[in-house]
Amino acid sequence: MTDTSVWLDLISPSHPFLFEGVVGDFSNVRTLTTVRRKTETVELAREAGFEFETLGRDFDNVALRTAAVPLRTLQLVAQAPAADVSLSARNAMCVLASRARGIPSIHFTDNDMTAYVDASLAERAFCRFRSTATRHVVPSAFRTSELTRWGADPERIHTYDGYKEDIYIAGFEPDEAFTEGLPFETFVVVRPEALGAAYVDEEESLVPRLLEALVADGTNVVYLPRRPGDRPHADPYPDDRVHVPDGALDGLQLAWHSDGVLTGSGTMAREAACMGKPAVSFFPGPLLSVDRSMVEEERMLHSRDPNEIASYLESVGTTDRTPDRRRCLRVREEVSSLVQALIDDPEDPELDSEPERRKARLESRNGR
Fold first, then answer.
1. What DSSP line would sit under 40-86, residue for residue?
2. Which residue, among 283, 268, 282, has the nearest Cα to 310 in the 3D structure?
3. How many other CB atoms are found less than 10 A from the CB of residue 30?
4. Which has the higher per-residue pLDDT, 122 or 109?
5. Which pLDDT tens digit goes with each residue over 316-339?
6. CB 272 within 8 A of CB 262
7. What predicted TM-score, i.e. pTM, was given to this entire model?
């Protein structure tokens, strides 16, 4: 069988390991990868084992960041690798470039923020652009109306039972030596809000008050700034209390060895929750549907009260946990078999109503 070439465009730090989990089981697929320079995305793509070309970058300035989207889209139209189909996540640039290049696109998302907030003009435009993808893959908790309202065909939206973080946690293996590179054995992870992002209506970070409360309680912190402006929040504290890594660290290893993950966004908290670790979101606004689902399942706390967060961490304590990836493996198998079918024929895929039948077909293709 002739290999199908897939152009994979990674634009955010969560994407390398997500798509390593999705495409890792595929046969007869040749992956051609581009990466946008945004925070740790390039480093993590390299760590995930991708060979790639770096095209375009992100900006701290909101106006520059918005202007960079059409510029990078044109860059992708001109320079992206030739392929049969594209694969991306929450990525209007790849979807539009794919249309311009005449190839179908498979688009992942779990972000339905526009269901809960009034989006900016630019964000509404990006929603409409993303909705034009050939196929959409979303978790069952996602509000699919947030694709159809912008023009997506409901027949081209495919759901899976789980969270996108399950897909790559399925292959996670703890490294028992990981904490040797840290100045302490016990700690929590803190990641600030994405202030300035289109979906964040907040100007002041909770991190200074949160670090103060955690340190006062005797809790050690691994602090992961998003942007240079986040770094000074750690300056009042010694490195053996609030440690800022020199480079990118494996976020899953951090989550696993921590006593909890606290983030102003969603991905790292969902990763911790999928592992069964204490997870806190201090996102400054309405939560996504996937996060609401986790809060309802009592797998995540949502709070912007530093004292409530510190009390929650104290109440759950430090417990040795053994990985149980059975649910994550089921989710990854379901998604991999779905995406394999979409890659094989994006316009008229052979889709089974039962995930187990899709899984069996994938295993047959791969000679298992």
1. THHHHHHHTT--EEEEEE--SSHHHHHHHHHHHHHHHHHHSPP-SEE
2. 282
3. 13
4. 109
5. 876 565 656 788 999 999 999 999
6. no
7. 0.85
For residue 274, count other CB atoms closer than 10 A to its CB. 27
Task: Report the sign of the C-alpha dihedral through residues 221, 224, 225, 226, in that order.
Answer: negative
| CA-to-CA dists, residue 217 to 97, 163, 179, 265, angstroms | 50, 32, 21, 23
Interacting residues of 44 by C-beta distance below 8 A, sequence separation 6+: 13, 16, 17, 248
Residue with token string 């929040």 = 233
Residue 234: band (very low, low, confident or very high) from pLDDT cuts 50, 70, 90: very high
Q: If you ran DSSP here, which 8-state letter would residue 87 be given?
A: E
Task: Quote the pLDDT of residue 350.
Answer: 86
Query: What is the distance between the alpha carbons of residues 368 and 359, in angstroms, rounded to a whole number?
Result: 11
Going by C-beta distance under 8 Å and a sequence separation of 6 or more, which residues neighbour residue 181?
Answer: none
Q: Alpha-carbon distance 72 to 80, whole Å?
A: 10
For strand 4-10 and strand 221-223, is the pairing parallel, antiparallel, or unpaired?
unpaired
Tokens at 188, concatenated: 């929590």
Q: Which two tokens stand for residue 65?
A: 């960041």
The DSSP code sequence of 226-239 is: SSGGGGGGGTTS-T
Judge whether 187 and 219 are in contact, CB under 8 Å.
yes
Q: For residue 187, what are its two tokens?
A: 């700690």
Q: Where are the domains of the chain?
A: 4-170+327-365, 178-316
pLDDT computed for residue 30 by the predictor? 94
Q: Which amino acid is at 168?
A: Y
The span from the CA of 34 to the CA of 15, in Å, is 11
Q: Under CATH, domain 178-316 is a member of which superfamily?
A: Glycogen Phosphorylase B; (3.40.50.2000)
Between the CA of residue 109 and those of 66, 121, 142, what are the distances in Å?
19, 20, 9
The CATH superfamily of 4-170+327-365 is Glycogen Phosphorylase B; (3.40.50.2000)
Q: Is the distance from CB of 85 to CB of 106 less than 8 angstroms?
A: yes
Distance CA 68, CA 55 (A): 11
For residue 39, give both structure tokens. Answer: 């925070």
**What whole-number distance in Å separates Cα of residue 245 and Cα of residue 228?**
13
